[in-house]
Specification:
With about 120 residues, this protein is an all-beta fold. The protein has strands spanning about 1-5, 10-15, 20-25, 35-40, 45-50, 60, 70-75, 80-85, 90-100, 115, 120-125.
Length: about 120
């Protein structure tokens, strides 16, 4: 069993930056993938970014590529999402997730087994 806790969300003006953290506890595996997803009321859950725990391979949604950076600290069992040049369209609840996910399907949330509670990110004008 794995527990995930997100932090770092908040209110920021357009063009600003935020750094989200996701701390994992419990039993984890080097083969796990860590992913970030976001959801806005009335919209489908959207893939944001993912990183493999062992190799550090990264994957990004086109909408955030060049603005967001995902990274991990294996010693702390923590994954980060650095968000720069934030836009109002980025407003959402951000969730981290993990599981044994094949790299070819990292963008599909249904392939992840464990999810955090989410953290709210609001980008104002």
């Amino acid at each position: 069993q794995v527990q995930l806790v997100e932090s770092g969300g908040g209110l920021v003006q357009a063009g600003g930056s935020l750094r989200l953290s996701c701390a994992a506890s419990g039993r984890t595996f080097s083969s796990y993938t860590m992913g970030w997803f976001r959801r806005t009321p009335g919209k489908e859950r959207e893939f944001v970014a993912a990183i493999t725990w062992s190799g550090g391979s990264t994957y990004y949604a086109d909408s955030v590529k060049g603005r967001f950076t995902i990274s991990r600290d294996n010693a702390k069992n923590t994954v980060y999402l650095e968000m720069n040049n934030l836009k109002p369209e980025d407003t959402a609840v951000y969730y981290c997730a993990t599981g044994v996910v094949h790299t070819i399907v990292v963008r599909l949330g249904k392939n992840y087994d464990y999810w955090g509670q989410g953290t709210q990110v609001t980008v104002s004008l």
